[in-house]
TrEMBL record:
Taxonomic superkingdom: Eukaryota
Chief location category: other
Subcellular location: Cell projection, Cilium; Cytoplasm, Cytoskeleton
Any one GO CC term of the record: axonemal microtubule
Coiled coil: 71-98
Protein keywords: Cell projection, Coiled coil, Cytoplasm, Cytoskeleton
Organism of derivation: Capitella teleta
InterPro entries: Enkurin_dom, Enkurin_domain-protein
Molecular function in Gene Ontology: calmodulin binding
Protein name (database record): Enkurin domain-containing protein
Enkurin domain ranges (all copies): 11-103
Source lineage: Eukaryota, Metazoa, Spiralia, Lophotrochozoa, Annelida
Length: 105
């Protein structure tokens, strides 16, 4: 028995392979039923250009703000615009980073 793989390890390996096969079958089934759809390049590019356009408009408004934020409404507006621009930047980066995007219904 020296140098042989123990039986419990062989069984464990078979269980892992079975679980992986079950998971792969589950994913294939979801794709076939249409529960997940792939975003086409045209849709992806349209969304990406829309995000960039929104960022440009927001950036233009941000550049028009006064430099001195002496009142609370000015400060709140500036902070809100900065947060929106930061979120748009993250969304744009995510869309550019991943060429294939799946949508779940």
């Amino acid at each position: 028995d020296y140098g042989q793989v123990p039986i419990y390890l062989k069984k464990r390996k078979e269980e892992i392979q079975k679980a992986q096969e079950d998971y792969d079958a589950y994913i294939r089934d979801h794709f076939q039923r249409g529960a997940m759809q792939c975003l086409s390049n045209e849709e992806r590019n349209a969304i990406l250009s829309g995000l960039k356009q929104n960022w440009e408009m927001l950036h233009h408004e941000y550049q028009g703000l006064s430099v001195v934020t002496d009142t609370a409404p000015k400060k709140n507006r500036k902070e809100r615009m900065e947060a929106e621009m930061k979120q748009l930047e993250r969304d744009i980066e995510m869309m550019e980073k991943h060429p294939v995007i799946y949508l779940s219904n």
